[in-house]
Amino acid sequence: MPHRTLMTLAALAGLLAMAGCVANPQLPGPTPIAPVAGPLATLDPRLSAAARPIAFGKAGDAQAGGELFQKTCSACHGPEGVGLTAPSLKTSTFVAGASDQELFDTIAKGRIETGMPAWSSAFGGLLSDTQILALVAYLRGLQK
User: Fold this and answer.
1) Overall domain count for the chain
2) Exposed site from 22, 52, 78, 81, fewest CB < 10 Å?
3) 94 closest CA partner among 116, 71, 121
């Protein structure tokens, strides 16, 4: 019986050796993909060199931002902004230390590493720049 096992192993080794000598067909190369227009995605929207600067001469409407927050943000950040599945915005050191532009960009582009989606219509979301400015104004009021 050991003789039969040895012969089988020898035959398999021979077949594998012969298979290695057979030329493999050339695999097709990668399919070229056209460059995407617009800003490049980054893990942290604050690092994007192509960030769209927003004119913050007029503050957003905090009351409208509060209503919008309840509809779009409260499921994750909680109705009072203290966090549910997402971080608290009321005690956030990021919100406290970020500029209005950084908050705008975070809402607009999302934060991939935290699971926050992009909310700006320019990035596939549902909100206009005016609505995002209103959310920024509301967030500033949460921290007071």
Assistant:
1) 1
2) 22
3) 116
- Measured between alpha carbons, how far is residue 131 from residues 33, 79, 81 in Å? 34, 18, 17
| Domain contains 10 | no
* CATH number of the domain where residue 81 is located: 1.10.760.10
Tokens encoding 124? 């596939």
Q: What SS3 class is residue 51? A: coil
C-alpha angle 71/73/77, rounded to 5°?
135
74, part of any domain: yes
**Domain housing 111:** 56-142
Task: Examine residue 41 and state whether it is found in any structural domain, yes or no.
Answer: no
Overall pTM > 0.90:
no
φ/ψ (deg, to 5) at 116: -80, 125
pLDDT lower than 50: segments of the chain: 40-50
Whether residue 43 is contained in a domain is answered as no
CA 15 from centre of chain:
49
77 to each of 20, 64, 81, how far by Cα in Å?
58, 17, 5
